[in-house]
């Protein structure tokens, strides 16, 4: 197959790495891609939101399957755009319909979905600028800490955990009145704080059948010991030791099955990945959020653990044949450490030359380097081009060895004022011991 992959992050580099290793991939194009994808596929200068240009490219290059990495084009309706065009309607496109993408595009929509289908989640209420006073009164009656979530897309940063009623009220005003997260916070979900251990569960579905992929635990805060600002993700570990068979059975019965059946019952077309952010509270799963694509950086930890052909998985999803696909996993552990530009998640420089990558150009059985915010300058050097620059995945027999391999590779890579957390996975090590 000729395949087009949309996106430019670490998730997309991991996708590309798995896709090109399949005997069923003839040619892979990545739009727009990064310095990592350019080494294994052909990057194409297309905007992920220019649906007409993408359609023209798909027809010109006789693309047999389109894989959508990030959430924004899904929320904007790229799947509907393809399926409503007679020339592209029969080309498998991996991602949910625009209505399905509202599971991530609107926190309020997803909360209503969970309540409607009996899926365990935190108690919540939604407010707008017009109902601000009601929201302030509601906050006064809530236990502290309390969670405020921007309803729309906010690049993984639209969630505030407030430690006092005063902070919560000021934050609600800031989100609704001052546009703290822009249009994304024109509506805010106020949610009960769930105290437990967080993990991410990934599901592939064709709208009827589903396959549960390896789970992961990610680390959102910029600072060690989970302090500081939220980021798009600073690291991940897979598998998660506390996600044993008994817990995962509860996840499947109480969350995965009701979600897939709920989408079908609501007549929502959903072909693609479903990322379920969960909280383990005393051995019971509660849904924090849905995302309508694979996570980043969790993908960089999850995909190396999939032994079966990933391109076959994508095609089975896109052609409604997922029930015939058998997923096979690797027995090892993976840990991902994200290297970011100095200043991230605030302002940061771009264009710094990254050193140490040349010796790592061939993937090893101990570590993998996935590019995210990278590009090549005119001299051919790989330079920084984003906040999260690289994701280094260590592979080992256990968490300890995987972490050792990841950090050993991280230590050989450098650029001006780069930063990474040194405590990824340490909480899991303590849990195990």
UniProtKB/TrEMBL annotation:
Source species, domain of life: Bacteria
Broad EC category: ligase
InterPro entries, A to Z: ATP-grasp (IPR011761), ATP_grasp_subdomain_1 (IPR013815), PreATP-grasp_dom_sf (IPR016185), PRibGlycinamid_synth_ATP-grasp (IPR020561), PRibGlycinamide_synth (IPR000115), PRibGlycinamide_synth_C-dom (IPR020560), PRibGlycinamide_synth_C_sf (IPR037123), PRibGlycinamide_synth_N (IPR020562)
Keywords associated with the record: ATP-binding, Ligase, Nucleotide-binding, Purine biosynthesis
SMART domains assigned to the protein according to its UniProt record, in alphabetical order: GARS_A, GARS_C
Record flagged with keyword Cell membrane: no
Pathway where this protein functions: Purine metabolism; IMP biosynthesis via de novo pathway; N(1)-(5-phospho-D-ribosyl)glycinamide from 5-phospho-alpha-D-ribose 1-diphosphate: step 2/2
Family matches, as PROSITE patterns: ATP_GRASP
Catalysed transformations (reactions): 5-phospho-beta-D-ribosylamine + glycine + ATP = N(1)-(5-phospho-beta-D-ribosyl)glycinamide + ADP + phosphate + H(+)
Gene3D superfamilies documented for this protein: 3.40.50.20, ATP-grasp fold, A domain, ATP-grasp fold, B domain, Phosphoribosylglycinamide synthetase, C-terminal domain
Pfam family, one: GARS_N
EC number: 6.3.4.13
MF term (GO), any: phosphoribosylamine-glycine ligase activity
NCBIfam families reported for this sequence: purD
Similarity remark: Belongs to the GARS family.
Protein name per Swiss-Prot or TrEMBL: Phosphoribosylamine--glycine ligase
Lineage: Bacteria, Pseudomonadati, Bacteroidota, Cytophagia, Cytophagales
């Amino acid at each position: 197959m000729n395949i087009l992959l949309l996106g430019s992050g670490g998730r997309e580099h991991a996708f590309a790495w798995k896709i090109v290793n399949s005997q069923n991939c003839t040619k892979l194009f990545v739009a727009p891609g990064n310095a990592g994808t350019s080494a294994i596929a052909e990057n194409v200068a297309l905007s992920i939101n220019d649906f007409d240009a993408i359609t023209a490219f798909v027809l010109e290059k006789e693309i047999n399957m389109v894989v959508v990495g990030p959430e924004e084009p899904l929320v904007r309706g790229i799947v509907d755009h393809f399926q409503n065009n007679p020339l592209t309607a029969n080309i498998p496109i991996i991602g949910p319909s625009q209505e399905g993408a509202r599971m991530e595009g609107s926190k309020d929509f997803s909360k209503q979905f969970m309540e409607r289908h009996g899926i365990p989640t935190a108690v919540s209420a939604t407010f707008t600028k017009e109902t601000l006073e009601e929201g302030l009164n509601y906050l006064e009656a809530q236990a502290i800490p309390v969670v405020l979530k921007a309803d729309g897309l906010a690049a993984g940063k639209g969630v505030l955990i407030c430690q006092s009623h005063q902070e919560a009220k000021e934050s609600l005003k800031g989100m609704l009145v001052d546009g703290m997260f822009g249009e994304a916070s024109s509506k805010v979900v106020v949610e009960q704080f769930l105290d437990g251990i967080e993990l991410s569960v990934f599901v592939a579905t064709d709208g009827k059948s589903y396959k549960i992929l390896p789970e992961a635990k990610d680390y959102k805060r910029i600072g060690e010991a989970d302090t500081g600002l939220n980021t798009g993700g600073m690291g991940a570990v897979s598998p998660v030791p506390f996600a044993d068979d008994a817990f995962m059975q509860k996840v499947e019965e109480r969350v995965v099955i009701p979600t897939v059946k709920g989408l079908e019952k609501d007549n929502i077309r959903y072909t693609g990945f479903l990322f379920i952010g969960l909280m383990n509270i005393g051995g019971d799963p509660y849904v924090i959020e849905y995302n309508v694509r694979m996570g980043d950086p969790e993908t960089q930890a999850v995909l190396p653990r999939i032994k079966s052909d990933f391109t076959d998985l994508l095609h089975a999803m896109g052609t409604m044949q997922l029930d015939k696909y058998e997923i096979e996993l690797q027995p090892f552990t993976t840990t991902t450490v994200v290297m970011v530009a100095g200043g991230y998640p605030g302002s940061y420089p771009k264009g710094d030359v990254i050193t140490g990558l040349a010796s790592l150009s061939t993937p090893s059985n101990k570590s993998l380097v996935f590019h995210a915010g990278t590009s090549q300058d005119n001299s051919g050097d790989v330079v920084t081009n984003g906040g999260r620059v690289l994701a280094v995945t260590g592979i080992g027999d256990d968490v300890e060895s995987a972490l050792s391999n990841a950090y050993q590779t991280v230590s050989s890579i450098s650029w001006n004022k780069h930063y990474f957390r040194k405590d990824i996975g340490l909480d899991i090590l303590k849990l195990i011991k």
